[in-house]
Amino acid sequence: VKIRGFGEFPIPPAIMFAILAVIAFYTASGLTA
I need a labelling partner for 28 at 20 to 30 A (CA). Which of 3, 19, 20, 22 fits? Predict the structure, then answer.
């Protein structure tokens, strides 16, 4: 996974999924609010 300004970091799929899930949750909450 390439992160601009930070180079490359090996991110475990579980952590990546958790981050995406949190972002999706807050996005859905914001849209429904």
Answer: 3
